[in-house]
Amino acid sequence: MALENNGGNTTTRDSDLLTRAECNALRGIAILGIFLHNYCHWLNPVVKENEYQYFQRNVDWLTQCIAGAGSLLPCHLISFFGHYGVPVFLFLSAYGLERKYGGRPGPTLEDNRVAPLPFIRYHYLKLFKMMIVGFISFTIIDAITPGSWKYNVQQIVGQLLMINNWYPNPDDNIWPGPFWFFGLMLQLYIVYRLFLYRRHWGWTVALMVVCTGVQLLMAPEGETLNYWRYNFMGGMLPFGLGLLFARYGERIILVRLQFGGFLMSWVACSFFIVSASESFYTWTIVPALVCYASVYLVKSIDHLPWAGLRGWIWYALSWMGNISAALFVIHPVLRKIFIPISRRGDVYTGLLLYAIASLGVAWLVMKVMKKIPNPKL
Questions:
Q1: Is 306 exposed, middle or buried (CB count within 10 Å of its CB: 0-12, 13-18, 19+)?
Q2: Do 187 and 232 form a contact (C-beta atoms < 8 A)?
Q3: Distance between CA 75 and CA 47 in Å, rounded?
Q4: CA 160/CA 132 separation, integer angstroms
Q5: What is the predicted pLDDT for the residue at 114?
Q6: What contacts 285, CB < 8 A, 6 or more positions away?
Q7: Burial of 343: CB neighbours in 10 Å, binned 0-12, 13-18, 19+
Q8: Which of 102, 361, 367 is CA-nearest to residue 244?
Q9: How far are the Cα atoms of 15, 18, 289 from residue 252, in angstroms, in the given order?
Q10: pLDDT means per 10 residues in the chain (377 residues)?
Q11: Do the beta carbons of residue 297 and residue 313 sit within 8 Å?
């Protein structure tokens, strides 16, 4: 899903930055959080997330639920933290782009520079290939089930062109909600090619600092912040981090650690994620912490000393990563069908049926998507 081929091999060596297998496992972790979050946060008794805006009451609500440790605690945690799979995808997308297209400018690279319009067209068509399958499926199911969305022409055209993130009040103009990601990715592809592609690292750092810092001047619960984070400005921190990681990651001690070091690093990052989520000013950097925590987690799994356990976990995450694009586009369809079960009180029955159906249908959709011709650059 929006992750470019990084050119790595499928084996893991201590000298590798991120192999293809590790990237696939990261996609598996990210989509697991996203598709479960997008179900749980629609349940009224469950804690709501701070994704586009910061609500202190949501943090306080989560703290109370953790202290109470009731039966819905897993749903609370998934709802509040699961959306951070999106920054992981942005990190991986930038990492893949830079590994595929980047490099230090020089005579050879400059002569083979990818022109902006063909680059943008190619990546728009790659996104469209994924989006249209899910959009068609969702609109059909939505139209024949209760509570259907009332589309207008502007909203349909905006989704097809992936420009509806720019509409005022994007919450009221994007449906299904997760499809905001396609507009976000298209914007980041454009930003990458026009401003970051084979340019000095300072351009990336400047955009990361400006786009993140400006958020601190906005009202935590305001619509301005909501609009900002719906667009590329809100995703620039993890995206830029992925680009820098692709260029300079070899210099980070991260790749020289062993199982114990990776595990403790993941625990430390997880602690900082929870702590930083409790304040508006530190909440803005949580996406970066999540990216590092995810990398440390995958590295920990890859270095597990128990081969059998490592093999089972690795297989599950890799399989999830392989169907991640299909699962992303199809899970809103299955949510619409199964969430009434949970809303009637059978929370985990509905969630389990939703998960099973989503994974099965995503596998079938993946087969369909492979039949659609790939665009040419």
A1: exposed
A2: yes
A3: 8
A4: 8
A5: 84
A6: 212, 237, 276
A7: middle
A8: 102
A9: 11, 12, 15
A10: 41 61 96 98 96 97 93 97 98 95 56 83 96 97 94 97 97 96 98 96 97 97 98 98 90 68 93 97 97 95 91 95 97 97 96 98 95 88
A11: no
pLDDT of residue 69: 84
Which structure tokens are listed for 172? 């009221």
The pLDDT score that the predictor gives to residue 154 is 97
Query: How far apart are the C-alpha atoms of 329 and 324, rounded to whole Å?
Result: 9
Dihedral (C-alpha) 320, 321, 325, 330: value to the nearest 10 degrees?
10
Instruction: Identify whether the C-beta of residue 184 lies closer than 8 Å to the C-beta of residue 165.
Output: yes
Calpha distance 131→167 (Å, rounded)? 19
Q: 331: which residues sit within 8 A by CB, 6+ positions away?
A: 34, 35, 38, 39, 178, 358, 362
Task: Give yes or no for a contact between 26 and 321, defined as CB atoms under 8 angstroms apart.
Answer: yes
> Is residue 165 within 8 Å of residue 227, measured between CB atoms?
no
Q: What is the pLDDT of residue 259?
A: 87
Q: How would you write the chain as a 3-class SS string? A: CCCCCCCCCCCCCCCCCCCHHHHHHHHHHHHHHHHHHHHHCCCCCCCCCCCCCCCHHHHHHHHHHHHHCCCCHHHHHHHHHHHHHHHHHHHHHHHHHHHHHCCCCCHHHHHCCCCHHHHHHHHHHHHHHHHHHHHHHHHHHHHHCCCCCCCCHHHHHHHHHCCHHHCCCHHHCCCCHHHHHHHHHHHHHHHHHHHHCCCCHHHHHHHHHHHHHHHHHCCCCCHHHHHHHHCHHHHHHHHHHHHHHHHHHHHCHHHHCCHHHHHHHHHHHHHHHHHHCCCHHHHCCHHHHHHHHHHHHHHHHHCCCCHHHHHHHHHHHHHHHHCHHHHHHHHHHHHHHHHHHHHCCCHHHHHHHHHHHHHHHHHHHHHHHHHCCCCCC
